[in-house]
Amino acid sequence: MIKAQGPLSIATFFTECLLHPKYGYYTTRDPFGAQGDFTTAPEISQMYGEMLGLFLAQTWHDQGNVAAFNLIELGPGRGTLMADILRATRTIAGFHSALQLHLIEASPTLQALQAKTLSAFNPTWHTQLDTVPQGPLFLVANEFFDALPIRQFIRDGQQWRERCVTVTEGDLTYALTEAAPHATLADRLADTKQGDLVETCAPAQAIAQEIGGRITQHGGVALIADYGNRRSLGDTLQSLRSHHRVPPLLHPGLADLTAHVDFEALAKASPSAHTRPTDQGVFLERLGITPRANQLVKSLQGSALTSHIAAHRRLTHPSEMGTLFKAMGLFPASAPPPPGLD
Ligand code: SAH
C-alpha cells in the first residue's frame, strides 16, 4: 500500500494491522490469556463481570425495571465478560426476560468463540452499532475503545504535522506531513506547545455520539472501561506481543496495537450526561468486590485460593490495574447517576 499510495496515516496502518481480512491481528487469532499476547480484567477473574452485572442491574432498577432493552457489548473478545454478567444477573427478577443480546464484533474468529460461550442467550452479531435496533440500551465496552484507530499530530507553530508510516530501506519508519492547520485541533492550541504530540480518534467519538444519542432518547446506560487519561497528550501508541511491549511498527498484524482512550473527548462527543472517569479499583470496591472476594474464598484452597487473592489485588490495587484503568458512565440526564462512579 505504501509503495502504491505513499505513506499511510497511523489510523490506516492501525486498522490494517488489526482488522485486515487476511492478515489482521484480531481476524486471525484469539489473542487473550497466558498463551496469548495480553490479559484483560474479565479474563483475570469472574468477579469483574459479576460487578459489572450488578452495575447494570442496579441502573436498570433505578430507571424503573425497563420492560424491554438491548444488552450490548462492544468488542466482546472471548465472551467471558458477558457470560459473567449474565450469570450474575440470573437472579434479578425480570432482567433476563427483558433483554435482547447484541454483540458488536469485527473479527469472525472471535465471533465464533463468543458463540461457544453465549449461544444459549440467542445473541445477534453486528460489525457496527448502527444495525442494532433502536430502544433502551445497556452497554458495556471493556478495552474496546483502545483498539480503535488513532491519528497523531505534532504541533508546529499554529499548525500541525501528521505522523505517518512509510518505508525506509525495507523497514517501516515514521514520517511527517507538511504543516497544515487542522480545524478539529483548534482547542488543542490552548494546552500544547511547540513539538507536542496529540492524538485524535474520530471513530471513538462517532460511537460515543451514537451511544449517547440513543441513551438520551430511549434511556439506559453505557459503561466504558479502558486505560487512558482525562485528556490525551503524548504518544500512547503501544504494541504488545507475548505480554511484552514491542515497537509498534515492528510486527504488523502479529502483535496487538492500542492507544490510550481520551475520556474527555468521548464525554464531549456524547449528548447524554456522563460521570467522571473513575479509577477501576475505586469503582470495583464501591460495587462490593471485596465482600464478593471474601465469599468466594470460602470455597477455594491451595493454588486456586492463591490465584484468587492475586486476581483481587491485580484488579483493584493502585500499583496494578487499579488506577491505570478507568471506568466512565454515560446516562440520561433525567435519571439517577449509575452506581460506583464519580
Ligand atoms: N472486551 C474483551 C476484548 C477486548 S479486545 C475483554 O475485555 O477481554 C478488543 C475487542 O474488540 C476484540 O474482540 C476485537 O476483535 C474487537 N474489535 C476491535 N476493533 C473493532 C472494531 N473496529 N469493530 C468491532 N470490534 C472490534
How large is the count of helical segments? Answer: 13
Distinct small molecules bound, one entry per kind: S-adenosyl-L-homocysteine
Spell the H/E element sequence.
Answer: HEHHHHEHHEHEEEEEEHEEEEEHEEHHHE
Distance between the termini: 45 Å
Number of strands: 17
Oligomer: single chain
Strand content: 15-25%
How would you summarize this macromolecular structure in one to three sentences?
The protein has helices at 2-5, 10-19, 25-28, 41-44, 46-62, 80-88, 95-98, 108-118, 202-218, 263-269, 280-287, 289-297, 302-316; strands at 8-9, 69-74, 99-104, 124-126, 137-142, 151-156, 159-168, 171-176, 197-200, 220-229, 238-241, 244-246, 256-258, 261-262, 273-274, 278-279, 325-331. By secondary structure, it is of the alpha/beta class. Helix 8 links the parallel strand 3 (99-104) and strand 4 (124-126).
Report on this structure.
This protein is of the alpha/beta class. It has a single domain (2-151, 198-331), classed as Rossmann fold, CATH 3.40.50.12710. The protein is built from 13 helices and 17 strands. It has helices spanning 2-5, 10-19, 25-28, 41-44, 46-62, 80-88, 95-98, 108-118, 202-218, 263-269, 280-287, 289-297, 302-316; strands at residues 8-9, 69-74, 99-104, 124-126, 137-142, 151-156, 159-168, 171-176, 197-200, 220-229, 238-241, 244-246, 256-258, 261-262, 273-274, 278-279, 325-331. Strands 2, 3, 4, 5, 10, 14, 15, 16 and 17 form a nine-stranded mixed sheet that branches. Strands 1, 6, 7, 8 and 9 form a five-stranded antiparallel sheet that branches. A hairpin with a 2-residue loop joins strand 6 and strand 7 (159-168). Helix 5 (46-62) packs across helix 6 (80-88), helix 9 (202-218) crosses helix 10 (263-269) and helix 12 packs antiparallel against helix 13 (302-316). The radius of gyration is 20 Å and the shape is globular. It starts with a helix and ends in an 11-residue tail after the last strand. The relative contact order is 0.15. The model has no long low-confidence stretch (mean pLDDT 95). The structure holds S-adenosyl-L-homocysteine. Residues 18, 26, 32, 40, 42-43, 75-77, 81, 104-107, 110, 142-144, 147-148 line the site of S-adenosyl-L-homocysteine.
